[in-house]
Amino acid sequence: MKYMMFVCTDTEPETDESRVPDIEVWVAENDTAGRRVTGSVLGAASAATTVRVRGGEVLLTDGPFAETKEVIVGFDILECADLDEAIAVAAAHPMAYNGRLELRPLVDR
């Protein structure tokens, strides 16, 4: 099963940096195991453009649409047997300590 994992900042990061795993090790382990299909860091939220169509008119807004202190800073597509495995993969990611990770199953259409 494929999962989109949104990598987000958080206002309450882990204070003990010695407990935070290394991102390069996490990427290498999950790439080698075939659990990480792809992933990337995103550009700054200030570089975002939000697109909406209302009344037939294309409306553009600079920056992210949501007004929040937490922002999505990256993503990974995971291939896992089930949600339990996806949770274990996410829990080992450094941003589980310094941010938050949101898992969503991808829906085949």
TrEMBL record:
Which residues are in the YCII-related domain? Answer: 1-107
Q: SUPFAM superfamilies attached here?
A: Dimeric alpha+beta barrel
Q: Which Pfam families match?
A: YCII (PF03795)
Q: Which InterPro entries match?
A: Dimeric_a/b-barrel, YCII
Output the Gene3D superfamilies linked to this UniProt entry: Dimeric alpha+beta barrel
- The organism's superkingdom is given as Bacteria
Per the record, the similarity remark reads:
Belongs to the YciI family.
Database matches in PANTHER family: BLL7171 PROTEIN (PTHR35174:SF3), BLL7171 PROTEIN-RELATED (PTHR35174)
Name listed for the protein in its UniProt record: Uncharacterized conserved protein
